Amino acid sequence: DHIGPSSPPTHALAKAPVATPQHSVDAFVKVFLQELNTGQGVTLSRSTVNDQYLALARTVRQYLMTRWLETSRHYAESGSKAIGYLSAEYLLGRQLGNALLATDLGEVAEEAMRGCGLDLARLRAQEVEPGLGNGGLGRLAACFVDSLATMGIPCIGYGIRYEYGIFKQSFVDGRQVEQPDPWLALGNPWEFPHPEASVQVNFGGHTETYDDGGVQRTRWVPDWNVVGVPYNYMVPGYHNGKVNTLRLWSAKATNAFDLALFNSGDYPEAVRAQTFAENITKVLYPEDSTPQGRELRLQQQYFFVACSIRDFIERVLGPDFDLHQLPERIIFQLNDTHPVIAVPELMRILVDERHFEWDEAWQITKQCFAYTCHTLLPEALEVWPTELLGRLLPRHLEIIRRINADFLDEVRASFPGDEQRVRNMSIISDDPNSSVRMAFLATVAGTKVNGVAELHSQLLADKVLHDFDELWPEKFTNVTNGITPRRFICLANPWLSELISDTLGVGWVTDLERLAELEPYAQDPDFRRAFREVKQKAKVHASDILRARDGIELPPGHLVDIMIKRLHEYKRQTLKLLHVVSLYEQVLSGEITASQLQPRTVIFGAKAAPGYWMAKEIIHLINAVGSVINTDPRLEGRLKIAFPANYNVTLAERLIPAADLSEQISLAGLEASGTGNMKLALNGALTIGTDDGANVEIRRLVGDENFFLFGLSEPEVAALRDSGYRPRQYYESNPQLRAALDLISSGIFSNGNREAFAPIVSSLLNEDRFMVLADFQSYMEAQLRVREAFADEEEWTKKAILNVARCGFFSSDRAMGDYLREIWHASAI
Ligand code: B1H
């Protein structure tokens, strides 16, 4: 009975939760003022904006509370199978707007606030978004839990309550500077701590065997521990009266930990111990795609999965539950390899604590996990040194060794005499040092292994996990990612939402394939005009935000060209930049006149991992190019770069609706899926993109004529690499490319300093791991096609409408349906 927020009441009458306040402005105002007075301890006239925001959030919370209690009671009583989504990241974005949307209280709240002399938009702007994730992977987790709640599927999202989320980015002289993100500083009205449901988590020590009435058993004798405190968050379903739970864990020092020290009088040491424990959930690692094998990170991973599994088994199911039936009640979805240590943890609980036979425990464990892989970059595949694992989690390492030994026996039985294959597939590798390959462990343990777009799943099975696919082809499947239309259409783009609802009725929000019904309207000039007005309003809104937030002016009438994603070389922000630099160079050299430029503003949004030197150099270059071209009168204001700092979910919601062109230009074979590509297409942007990740599916759905394809395909990339890629050849043979690179080297963007960007240029000329130079020509040609297409307003609008109409597939509701059918075998109750 603990899926929800609190312990079960003891007598039947207490089961009826308090009534939800009425959906009227008066009732809303009453609750709001009460929250302000008794919750915040202030009167309206004395309250700050933060007081008002907190009281408003708590008011909306009251409307969700009954539903939350009811949902959890209903799930517990039904005894149905739940999803345990295990993710080290949830990039939630602001909560208030989403809660108002889910409860349909937006208009009531707006009027109620007006009645109190307050502005709802101003209060909403007070919320600091929980940035508990890096990028696509964390945002995907947030979209998935939204969809499961909306579909009425029992799900608990388990994760980490980082005290500091993804760093705040600012620019100083064009360079990225990181500041901590103290997102909890002004109070967090959306969380419910439950210290009484805390869980102890052990670390270190050694293992020993002992005789248990004639049976030899192993136990772990840890030497330190911390406590995990759960904080529950509401995950409201859209207009369905359901509220699921997201349970994030926060680390605290145990009493035993510091008490002995306090008693001995060593206060500084006692405080140190406390700090040490609480460091575990102090901060999100800001690496996207390239994890650093740091000890604290492994502590984070084990900490949150140990808490989550213990929580589910002992509190959700209860102490009397027969764990033989575990697979009927839970499937833990592993969001990448970050939570994979959950596999040996469940084995340890079953074998060491519950005294299951190994084989039986393994049968159960195998049914309780499924694994989603999110990458193809070799450096992104997590690997832990056995030395570190053995020191931190000695029993888990033993269990992994046994899983591996049994697994390799199975490989030998299927491929007798093929010892090379055995070495290649071993979970424990000796190359170069003894280490555990977490993706292999996840693949061996999972009932299913999925990639996140068709091409990615194909490449996983053909390349990264090829040997495993040969052994167990039925394990491998694809689920193409999706995005929640609630946040990324309804909340982000109220103008488009209204146009769609006026045209189709409101059902599309939970049935996104209904957008297909917009298709005929692409031929309707009135609809096209209305559609352009929507885009125009979004541009004005984005422009207002950028002016207030960053002092950036978006010139009216420009093509809005958007590249928003983490800064990574494989994503190729440098290719976008070379396009801009080349246009500038063509004007400077007189090859074209400024008047021939299609008026265009290129908007970048990107954070670089603080330790990723080259990515930070690229940020510097983007800003440097921006500050020169934005002020050069020779361009007549027809080419601009806007690079607002601190791109996050909140800013994404503002920018995406304003986009005309969506840049999805990774080197083919490297972007597992992408999800920004889906958000932009669904908001009526056309994509310029490579045949990579979900771009492949977007193009297939919207049609070639509504998509600007360019660049090498994945097989062409592989062939070029095999034949010996020499980037300098492209520089030598392509005058336009050479002129653009030479302009960067000339010092024009660095006050005459010719060395400032030499590392970027020389990396492109000499190595160019991601084949920017090879794709340059094709990209420039595709941009010419964009230019031409955008010049025909009516035709462009048709294409944009068709993008919206044909992308309903990319709802995360569909993705969740696929997981439910293909992987989880669970359903709504
Ligand atoms: C994705 C990550 C990722 N893939 C390591 N891998 C991390 C890897 O903290 N770390 O160490 C954090 C994140 N993130 C992204 O997942 C892919 O690059 C996107 O293509 C994909 O759309 C997204 C969701 O599947």
From TrEMBL:
EC number: 2.4.1.1
Top-tier EC class: transferase
Catalytic activity: [(1->4)-alpha-D-glucosyl](n) + phosphate = [(1->4)-alpha-D-glucosyl](n-1) + alpha-D-glucose 1-phosphate
The protein's role, per its UniProt record: Allosteric enzyme that catalyzes the rate-limiting step in glycogen catabolism, the phosphorolytic cleavage of glycogen to produce glucose-1-phosphate, and plays a central role in maintaining cellular and organismal glucose homeostasis.
GO molecular function: glycogen phosphorylase activity; pyridoxal phosphate binding
Top-level taxon of the source organism: Bacteria
CC terms in the record's Gene Ontology section: cytoplasm
Pfam short name (any one): Phosphorylase
Family stated for the protein in its record: Belongs to the glycogen phosphorylase family.
GO biological process, one term: glycogen catabolic process
Modified residues (N6-(pyridoxal phosphate)lysine): K679
Cofactor: pyridoxal 5'-phosphate
Name used for this protein in its record: Alpha-1,4 glucan phosphorylase
The organism of origin for this protein: Propionibacterium cyclohexanicum
CDD domains assigned: GT35_Glycogen_Phosphorylase
Database matches in Gene3D superfamilies: Glycogen Phosphorylase B (3.40.50.2000)
